[in-house]
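Saturday, quiet lab. Running sequence design on the structure tokens for the scaffold JK sent over.
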């Protein structure tokens, strides 16, 4: 049986290589396996931290164009904007009844993001993972392609689904599985390889944006932090975060095993060869994406049309789940008994 695949991504014009390797390439691969494969640009999640309302729609268009440029095909997947499908927010509320406050308080991302807020720690930031659970559970998805940083949110959403089924009716919701890739699930910052590559937490020079020009990409890799092993050791290991990261990026972009890259580099003179090879491979990978992005991004109405069509398909699925959830919880009028 083909799985229902669902994933979500934040709207920003600054998607980076971690998003691409950890998640976006998996979305593209999921299109032909998923029945359906559903991808959501989560504008409601973006409102949980300080943001500029005048820019949010532009950022959604940026992300839509990036995803299409990377190979998502609206004929083979459902691509939509979260705020277009009101079932997400309704289900979020209904799921709060089976979510423990203590669980939300313990989430690492809540702790990190709340300490970064200057003015207001919104209740939305605390409820963020419940909305994320609603995103997935509304579609009764089996698989959720994500990077390593979403593991904790996935565990929580499984707990929520299990608790819901136990309390209100077995089989109402599907308990989803994460799909974290074996290589590239945690792409690291090139300057601070002990941290993940990230739009908010990382360093500018250590973050490779998908829309960086080729010279910038090559420069960022050239200056990547490695280590002072002498002679240089071109192998993955826990105490060689920088080198390991470069080997894994190269392997992921080329679609080969990291051990293959290590064998290939065995005769290399130093880390310079590795850095140049990764820089070239990433530039080659991203060049066609960047070309397509520029064409797609210029046509805002066409992007809106794609999102609107996706929202129509998404809503039809989510509405059916919501009807069952309301019925199980005794919320609203009773559903008419099945006819026939
Ligand atoms: P977001 O937009 O931060 O990230 C999108 C995807 O990119 C992955 N990712 C990484 N993978 C590898 N290395 C990295 N350095 C790296 N940084 C980010 C993330 O794991 C993610 O898969 N909360 C989610 C959005 C969301 C969602 C959902 C995801 C909302 N609802 C439902 C799955 C299912 C987020 O902020 O992703």
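Result came back. Writing it out in full:
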């Amino acid at each position: 049986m083909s799985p229902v695949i669902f994933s979500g991504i934040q709207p920003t014009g600054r998607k980076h290589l971690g998003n691409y390797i950890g998640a976006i390439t998996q979305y593209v691969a999921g299109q032909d396996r998923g029945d359906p494969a559903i991808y959501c640009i989560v504008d409601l999640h973006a409102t949980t931290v300080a943001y500029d309302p005048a820019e949010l729609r532009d950022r959604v268009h940026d992300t839509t164009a990036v995803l299409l440029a990377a190979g998502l095909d609206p004929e083979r997947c459902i691509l939509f904007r979260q705020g277009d499908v009101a079932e997400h927010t309704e289900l979020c509320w209904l799921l709060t009844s089976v979510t423990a406050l203590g669980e939300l308080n313990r989430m690492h991302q809540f702790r990190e993001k709340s300490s970064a807020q200057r003015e207001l720690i919104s209740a939305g930031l605390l409820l963020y993972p419940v909305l994320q659970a609603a995103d997935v559970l509304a579609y009764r998805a089996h698989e959720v392609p994500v990077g390593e940083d979403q593991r904790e949110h996935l565990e929580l959403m499984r707990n929520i689904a299990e608790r819901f089924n136990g309390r209100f009716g077995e089989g109402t919701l599907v308990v989803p599985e994460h799909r974290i890739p074996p290589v590239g699930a945690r792409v690291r910052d090139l300057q601070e390889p002990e941290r993940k590559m990230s739009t908010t937490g990382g360093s500018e020079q250590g973050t490779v944006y998908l829309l960086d020009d080729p010279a910038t990409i090559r420069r960022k890799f050239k200056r990547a932090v490695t280590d002072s092993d002498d002679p240089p050791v071109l192998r993955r290991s826990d105490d060689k975060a920088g080198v390991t990261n470069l080997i894994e990026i190269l392997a992921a972009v080329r679609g080969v095993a990291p051990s293959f890259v290590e064998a290939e580099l065995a005769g290399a003179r130093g880390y310079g060869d590795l850095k140049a090879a990764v820089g070239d491979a990433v530039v080659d990978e991203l060049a066609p994406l960047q070309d397509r992005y520029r064409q797609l991004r210029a046509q805002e109405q066409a992007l809106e049309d794609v999102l609107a069509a996706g929202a129509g398909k998404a809503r039809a699925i989510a509405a059916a789940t919501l009807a069952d959830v309301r019925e199980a919880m005794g919320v609203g009028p009773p559903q008419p008994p099945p006819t026939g």
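Notes for JK: The beta strands are 5-9, 37-41, 78-81, 143-145, 177-179. The mean pLDDT is 96. Ask whether to fix the surface positions before the next round.
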